[in-house]
Amino acid sequence: MKICPNCRAEYEDTINVCADCEVELISSEDFKLLEENYIDWEVVYTTPELYEAEMVKTNLESANIDCVILDQKDSSFPLGGEMGVLKVLVRKSDFEEALQIIKNSSNPEIESNDASHGEQ
Ligand SMILES: [Zn+2]
Q: What CATH code is assigned to 2-107?
């Protein structure tokens, strides 16, 4: 049996692509493994731009936070989502910290505006 990682529909082994999502199907064994491996992970950032996702990943890794970039085009992942959107995932235990790091690093303009308002 095969499963669509996007909508979780079940298919015969002879079918390779989900009729609804046009996503490549994975075996039910792989699906279970993926689910177990990623159940503790949470999406902390989404972007259509690979360089942006990689920037976020670099920032998180320099703070010793494990993270993975998921590409819907890879398709072998049981989280639903929009096509062409990259997701950066971190462990749930690192989520808050990761969010802060991303906030602090990805919007330098907003940050400097805030700082100048706050200064007296
Ligand atoms: Zn599907």
A: 3.30.70.790
Give residue-wise pLDDT tens across range 37-84: 777 888 899 988 889 999 999 999 999 998 888 875 555 555 544 557
SS3 content of the chain, % helix, strand, coil (to 5): 40, 20, 35
Give 58 Cα–ligand 1 centroid separation in angstroms: 32
Q: How far is the CA of 52 from the centre of ligand 1 (A)?
A: 27
pLDDT in tens, 22-36: 888 988 888 887 777
Measured in angstroms, how far is the CA atom of residue 19 from the centroid of ligand 1? 7
Tokens of 55: 């920037």
Nearest of 101, 74, 102 to residue 86 by alpha carbon: 74
Location of structure tokens 């993270």: 67
